[in-house]
Structures are given as structure tokens and as C-alpha cells.
Amino acid sequence: MIALLCGAALAGTVTDARGTSVTITAPARIVSLGGGVTEIVYALGSGDAVVGADTTSRYPAEVAPMATLGYHRNIGAEGVLSLSPDLVIATTDAGPPATLSQIEAAGVPLVVLDTAPGVEALTSRISTLSTLLDAPEAGAELLAGLTASLSAVKTDAPPRVMFIYARGGGTLNVSGTGTSAAEMISLAGAINAVDAYEGYKPLTAEGALLAAPDVLLLTEGGLEALGGREGLLSQPGISMTPAGQQEKIVTMEDLYLLGFGPRTGEAARELSESIRQ
Amino acid sequence: MSIQPRERRRILLAVLAVAVVVCSIAGLAIGAVNTTPSVVLAVMASWLGEPLPEEISPQVAAVLTIIRAPRVLLGLLIGAGLSVSGALMQGLFRNPLADPGLIGVSSGAALAAACVIVLGGSGLSPLALPLAAFCGGALVTLLVMRLARRGGRISIETMLLAGIAVNAIAGAGTGILVTLSDDAQLRSLTFWTLGSLGGATWPILIGVAPLILVPLLLSPWLAGSLNALLLGEEEAHHLGVNVERLKLGVVLMAALIVGASVAFSGVIGFVGLVVPHLIRLMAGPDHRIVLPGSALLGAALLVGADLVSRTVIAPAELPIGVVTTLLGGPFFLGLLARKRWM
Lengths: 277, 342
Known about the structure:
The complex is a heterodimer.
Chain A: H1 2-11, E1 13-15, E2 21-23, E3 30-32, H2 35-43, E4 50-53, H3 77-81, E5 87-91, H4 97-105, E6 110-113, H5 119-132, H6 136-151, E7 160-166, E8 172-175, H7 180-187, E9 191-192, E10 200-202, H8 205-211, E11 215-219, H9 220-225, H10 228-233, H11 242-246, E12 249-252, H12 254-258, H13 264-274
Parallel strand pairs in A: 3-4, 3-5, 5-6, 7-9, 7-11, 11-12
Antiparallel strand pairs in A: 1-2, 7-8, 8-10
Helix pairs in contact in A: 5-6, 6-13
Chain B: H1 5-29, H2 37-47, H3 58-93, H4 105-119, H5 128-147, E1 149-150, E2 153-154, H6 156-180, H7 183-194, H8 202-218, H9 223-229, H10 233-238, H11 243-265, H12 271-283, H13 287-311, H14 320-339
Antiparallel strand pairs in B: 1-2
């Protein structure tokens, strides 16, 4: 019995992305800041304990009534504390830093997870949270599912994929290297058509021609903001690219494609198929 | 029955002082975390050494002690500071539309803040941004002042024009950084330019306080000289005012106050421009009343605006720059319509 209790207590100790050791037993009121980590918390079966989340937490649908804390880079400390959480889960993107230190100073355990895109950081987020939330089986299952999906990804004849991030108002940004989108394109066994720069840059007609993508990849909301397929094809340069001529446009839901949550393996497999059709 | 002007001013200052106290207490007592007046009183007593009653959770006490108290104090300081620097600038430029942004403090600070947000890595100290913003504001102000200086004299007209040009250049620099930024950095930058007192902590407060308090407490000594300046530079000179020293003093004080405010709270618009106007509408253009009146009204207004920003969409927060403008703008327009004053 004592050994069991100790085991349970030890199960809740992790070292987070800041190198801080966090110990917690059976959290009953969780605040989760970041769409990807919120998804993991739900996938691990701790969704019932979530009392608050940020606006990027949009999946699963049950989290919607709790997602009231504002954008995860602009969180207010008192708003979080007003939910009397016994655990705050954040990512290295969450902030501002003063808010996080105020939450800690109020005596609420805070765990910060590495938000870097890629399978390695995702694996570490899942295993950290499964330890912290004392759900080792669910965690192992998620990781096994991730590996299985990733090994089912098609790798033959890699197409050149260009990811376009559209936000409405006519601003179109194209992903270079080092982004979530670039990582997903590579996980889907494809080539990122733009590797000349890191991060996002505005789309130019000549840049699109130079990149010569076979497939245009967008988020669903992005394509909508552009006025659908026709709106995208009427952008300067786009119609002259191989992808534009063949009208090969693939869209996926924002958080599913770029969130690096527990559905990442599934998203990569699906992407690997849709870009090859 | 008529009230003597001097009497009227005293009443106005007393009313404003009461407003400051009321807003501060409200700011301390109200927020996303529910706190009854008895809890607030008990926690305040605990600051004076009384033991904290057991029925009060340490988390609630922490909210009052480490979040709300420094936040209210920072709001008082910055509100008073921005308003007084607005009054000083308007007095110096003899123009009711002058605000501290004119000498480049805000745009310089914004450029430096954008540099840190976009070019700085994630491993930077949290103090990097405020330090950079303060230095950026100070450097741009010194540049504007240097450009306006000819043969030991600062020309107000040149300073105005140089300020406009340097502001535009700094804005273009920020534009370059916006182009380079990714989505997340852009959002951080946008939130920064809308202002927030959410970063207030005791160490920050202690660091900022002297930078704002010293010029604030010195400002009443300039009131007489600024009154003389209202007549014109020549006239002020003949009245025995050292005009060049006055210009230098006003610009340095405003730069110090605004630089420190912007560095820790981002850009909070409107307060510096409008608060001195409101005081002038109520009590006339005498700087002996405009300066202290602006300090009190600005302090009360900003703490009140912060209270709105914290509670209106709780548990999230509305940027305080949005609140000050949304509340102050229509109010100011209403006054204008009633008084037809310019």
C-alpha cells in the first residue's frame, strides 16, 4: 500500500522545458495554455479536469466553453488564478513571462513544455504529460499510435509542396524552413518547395515561380479567407506554377495540420496521401 | 454666489485626490478573482504585520499582494507620469496637440521593442525588452534634440519637424521588422503596442518608480517658467526665465517618464494628450494647477481603465490602450461639443 502511494507520487514528478522539477498528484483543476498541449491532455483522458484554456485550444470540441483565457502569448495572471487551478500547463510560447512568474509566485504548480515543431518534441510532450497526469498506459498508446501512423506515411515520388499561410486582408505568407508546416511536409514524405529562408515571408509572384511547387498546401480557414480555390489561383504567379496549372490544392484544418498534437501522425499520413492524388 | 478661482482650484485638486484614492481601492478590491471587502482588509492588515486569518486562502492573498497591489501602484505612477509629460510638452510647444510621442520617445521605444521581439532569441532575459525600449526611446529623443540644436539654442520649430521625420523613420524601421516577423512575433508586437499593466511586479515597480517619481516631483518647479513661456520665448526671457534650460529640462523629464512607462507597459495612448486638456477645461491654463491636476487625474484614470481592462472580458484581459481610448475618446468629444473650445 505504501509502495503504491509512493509510486503514485513519484509518477507525478517531471522536469519541464525550463529544467524545473514539477511534482503534482492527481490534479483536479487544470489550466492548459496552447492548442497542442490541450489536445494531449484530453487524449490522455484528463479532459474532465480542464477548467480553463487559451483561445488556440480548439480541439476537442468539449474544450470550447473553457477556452476563455485569451491568446496564449497574452495571458493575464489573475484570470488564470481566478479559476483556482492546481496545475497550469503551458508551452515555451506562452506568456508574457511576467504572467508565468506571477502564477508560480501564487503557489500554483506550472509546467512549461517545449513547443518546437517535430516528432521529437511532441514525443517528449506526450511522455511528460502522461507522467504528470499519471496516465502511463494512455501515453504509451498515443506514442504507439503516432509511430504506427508515421510508418504508414507514403514516401514514394516526393512532390514539391508549398505551404501558404493566409490570414485575410490579402496577406499571404509562404513557409520557408523551420516551421511547423515545413516539418509536416517532411513528415508526409514530401519536399518543401521553399528552403531559401527560415520562417515565413510574403508571397511574391516570382518567388512562387522559382519554387515551382507541385502542390499548394493551405489551412482550411486560409483558403476560405482567400475566397476559395479561385481566389488562390488568381494570386499573382500562382496560376503559372505546376500546382496552379494542375489546380492541385490541398487544405487541412489549422490545428490538425500545424498543432503538433496527438493527431500529428494521422495528419501526416493523410497529408502524404492527399498530396499524391 | 461665486467661488474664488483659488478656492475652486483647491476644491478641484481635493476632488481629484479623492478620485485617486477611490480608484486605487477599487483597483485593489475588484478583479477576476473574487475578493470580498473583508478579505481585502485582512490581506492589507497582513502587509502591516498582522497574521493572515486562516480562512483566507494563500492564493487569494497572493493575488492581492503580488498581482493587484504592484499593478495599481504602477498604474498610478504611469498614469500620473504620462499626463504630466503631456502637460509639459503642450506647455513647451505651446500647442494643445503636442504629446510626448512628438519627440520620438514612443516610436524609438517601439522600434527597439520590435528589434527584441523579432530578432532576439527565446533565451533572452525578460528584462531585455523593457531595457531596450527605454534605451531606444532615450536615444531617439536625444537624436531629435541634437537635430534641433543650433549654436547652443534648441529651436522648438526644428524640434517639431525633426521629431516628425525621426518618428517616420523609426516607424519604417518597425515596418521592416514587422515584415521579418512570424505570426507569433507579430502578435506579441501588436499586443505590446496596445499596452498592458499586466507585467507589474514588485521588482519592476521598484526599478521604475524613481525614473518616473523624480521628474514628477520636480515638475511643479517648472510651472512658473512654463506660464511665462505661454507669452512667447522672448517674453519669457525678459521675465527672467532661462528658456534654453527650461526646454532641456522639459524634454529630459518627459523622455525619462515616457521612456520608463513605455518600457514596462507598452504604448498607452491618449492619456498624455487628453488629461491635461481636461484639467485646462476645468481650471484654466495656469501650469500651477495643470501639472498637479494632470498628475492626479491621470493616475485615477489609468487605474480605473486598468480595472476595466482586467474585468470586462475576465478571465482574459482587454489591452489597456484600447480601454483608455474607448473611454476617453467619446468623453473628450462630449466635452468639446459642450464647450466649443480649442
